[in-house]
Structure formats: C-alpha cells, structure tokens
Give the backbone structure.
Amino acid sequence: MLTKLNVLILGFIFLFVTPIMASTEDQSSDQSDLLIGSHVARVIVPKAIVYSDENLSSPLGYISNDKLITVGNPRKRNPELVPLVVYGRLAFIESKNIHFENESIEIISSKRGAPREHNIDIILAKPEEKLSENNSAYFYLHQFSAGMETENLVKNIDQSTKNHFTGFGISLFHRQPTGRAFYGAGYEYNGLSTSNVKFALYLLTPTVGYTPIRNPLFLVDLTLSLDFALSAQLSIQNTSQPSGFLWGPQLGARMILFPNQKYHAIGGIGYRSYKVLRMGELVDANGNKMSGITKIDGINLSIGFAFEI
C-alpha cells in the first residue's frame, strides 16, 4: 500500500516538475541565443515594433528607420523573430524589419559575452508622448456636393447644373505605432466656378479618428472633423457678396495602402454638412435681392498620398 502511494505521489510530482523543467530549458535557450553569437542589424522600415513576448501580443514601442541595433540569432522555434535586450531583459523584433550588416565584420565573438544593451530603451520610452515622432503628412484631392441651395443659385444665374466643389488639402496626423486612436488637423481649399458664379471656401479641419482594421497591406480609418471657414467668398456676375462664415462636421472613412512603408496611397469617402452664416440673402449685378445659401451638404470623395515624417 505504501509503495503504491509513493508511486502516486511521484507521478504527481513528475507532472508538475516536467513543465517547470521545460520552461527552464526555454529560458536557457533564450540566453544561449544571445550568448552564442550577436549581430549588428539595421532597421529597414519606418517603425520596427519591439515586443516583450514571442506571440507579439505585448508591444514595447518601436525603433526608427536606419537605426543600428544589436540582436541575437534568429529563434529556433520561430525564425521570423530575433531576440534583443531591452530594459535589461529579453525582447523580440521581426526579422523582416531588419537587415543584418556584413557578417564577416559585424559578428561579435561569443568570447566577448552577451550583446550590449542598445539604447533603444530611450527610443522606446513612452513613444506616444513624443509629438515630434509618429507623425504623417497627407496630401489629397477631393470633390463634394455643394447642396441644393448652391445648385439652385448656379442654375438661376448660369442655367448650369454644376453643383459640386473641387479642391485639395494637406493634413498632419499623429498616431501611436501600436494604437488605434489618432488626431490631427488640416487645411483645405475648395472652389466652385461657372461663367458668372465664383465660390471659394478656405477650411480648417481639426480631426480625431479611430482605426478598426489594420494589417500590413492596408488599414481603415474612421474620422470625425469639425470644419470651419472664417471666410467663404462668393462672387455673382463680378459682384462680390458679403463674406460668409461656415462651420460643421465631416464624417469620413478612408483606406490607406502599405501603412508600414514610408509612403502610402489613400482613398476616402465621407459626408459633409455645413451651416453657412451671413449669406442667406444675396444681390445680383443690378442690386436685386435673391435667395442665398444657408447650408452646404453632400457626399465627399478623395484620393491622395501620405508619408511618414
């Protein structure tokens, strides 16, 4: 009876000790990857994310393009990862984001011990707080509907069916490399022109956004901006009208191709709804009063490109 009990106890002990031994072996393997040989590598993407685990579920931050870092040998279990030292402990970076320098020159002998700790701990320290980093510039062309009131005005003056603004814009956005929320602001020029009607809007577009879909090929952004124009300039039959004030929301969705590269292609669709002040009543070249514009709303389409600053 005692012998059977001893066997049972030893069996339970074996069940608990085995995974602990395996874990210890894994840790030894982690250290040996760094001790056997170290290499100098160069970051070849705008933002190479560093993770604290091999499942890539706990990002620590990122290392900027063209930085030299010291890494260990590629992982045996996962050759797509290489280890490095961050904050005095083991971390991982994807091998596709780095390029090993000349092996004959850069391999560090194992006699010199583990690789030095690279100063990426400074680069990675709270990257979300560094407003001088993680920024992108967007340049785009767009077109949006001018609304029924503007369409009726153009039709009455010029018998034209033109009812949309065209223009261009530039925006700056700040987003964390691993975050989904972002914010920024931009400037736009929008114009509508016929033979006797000239309408120009100069807009400021403070924007917040969220990224629900993100992968190496593309990402999808949802945006909300509160646009305003301190000056909306309208001329009818060479007669300048009082400058108007315009404000309102703009909802949008855009797709950004190749988000992990320095340059991106962008395309978007959205909806604008603006309230127009001081332009409710207008006059023609003869001084006759006519109905003006109090609202501009319609679908917005855009296309352009962006790059990392």
About this structure: Residues 31-125 form a domain with the SH3 type barrels. fold (CATH 2.30.30.40).
